[in-house]
Amino acid sequence: MPISPINAAALSVNLAQFKGQALASLFNTAAQGRSPPPAAGGFGEGALPDRFSGTLPAPAGGADFRGVLDRYSALFTALGLPTPTTPTGLDSSRPFSQPGQNMVTVLNRVEVSFKAQFSELAQMRTSLALQQDAARQLTGVDAHTPNAQLKGALDNFVASYNGGVERFSPELAAGGILEGSWEAARARFATARDIGHILNGHGAGVRGGLATLGISTDPKTGMAAVDHAKLDAALADNKAGHAAAITDFATAFVGTVDSLTATGHAQQRQMANLERAVHWIDANKAAVQKEFGPGAAATPNAAFARAAARYDAMALLAKGGV
């Protein structure tokens, strides 16, 4: 059947506003109530959910792109945009989107970015699980725990935590894959908050939380550190109270990670939205090419390319590929 004529005015506005973050928000809103989020863990725990679950329906009556684009245009002005895609690392050779740019070119670049974002969020979930395991080793310390064992467990946690900070700081920074991701930033904020919470140990008479033991985070880098001389002095002065502060912190940290990675949490919903968007592009790109032409391939930098390739590898494994 013939394709309906394009509304040129609406298309111009659409292309000018067309960002990956808006596309993700569209999928999130359009799919509400139809598709549950993937099972807990998702890609991050090695068990890929059904690839591209919860697809958006094709336009009624075939590829009515005028209707699709009009729907996009209306939603762009009404929605908040929680899943951004920034151009700096994705394709620095030219503007991300501009009036008249080929729609398929934009879709190619959005597809790479969404795959990369999903992959990095999955890696963050794995990192959080490792940090949680290290914190769990501290939940049972008390006045009878040997100092060497207690300090070793603290050092192990700090090393695990700092590994996550170092791994994801570039991705959360300007131009990074997760720049502007609310859920990635929330994970960083919540875990750092637990370390610095001044009421850790309050019930045992400790004032000032872990800082009184020499455990702190750098406000600029986010890296945690242990002042061992201060820790030794604190344990010598009031081991029971300071052990309770460590237990309070560790229990809170374990609970925070449980919340961040729980089924139905916003982080998992964001991953489901990204996956749904990739599926929509995969299913509809050929039809869009017929309307707008072949477009140009994305030119991601090395970080985006690696993360997108990791997504493809996980998706292949989920489908039973080699």
Task: Round the mean pLDDT to the nearest integer and report it.
Answer: 77
Low-confidence stretches: 1-66, 72-90, 92-100
Order of helices and strands: HHHHHHHEEHHH
The coarse silhouette is elongated
Give the proportion of residues in helices: 55-70%
The number of helical segments is: 10
β-strand number: 2
The neighbouring-strand order within the major sheet is 1-2
Largest sheet: 2 strands, antiparallel
**Percent in strands:** under 5%
Structural class: mainly alpha
> How many angstroms does the end-to-end distance come to?
40 Å
Provide the gyration radius in Å.
24 Å
Protein name: Flagellar hook-associated protein 2 C-terminal domain-containing protein
Organism: Massilia glaciei
Q: How would you portray this structure in words?
A:
This protein is an all-alpha fold and 322 residues long. It has a domain at 137-262. 59% of the residues lie in helices and 2% in strands. The protein contains 10 helices and 2 strands; from the N terminus they run H-H-H-H-H-H-H-E-E-H-H-H. The protein has helices at 8-17, 20-30, 65-76, 87-90, 103-136, 147-172, 182-196, 228-260, 266-292, 302-318, and strands spanning 215-217, 224-226. Strands 1-2 form a two-stranded antiparallel sheet. A hairpin with a 6-residue loop joins strand 1 (215-217) and strand 2 (224-226). Helix 7 (182-196) runs antiparallel to helix 8 (228-260). The chain starts with 7 loop residues before the first helix and ends with a helix. The relative contact order is 0.18.
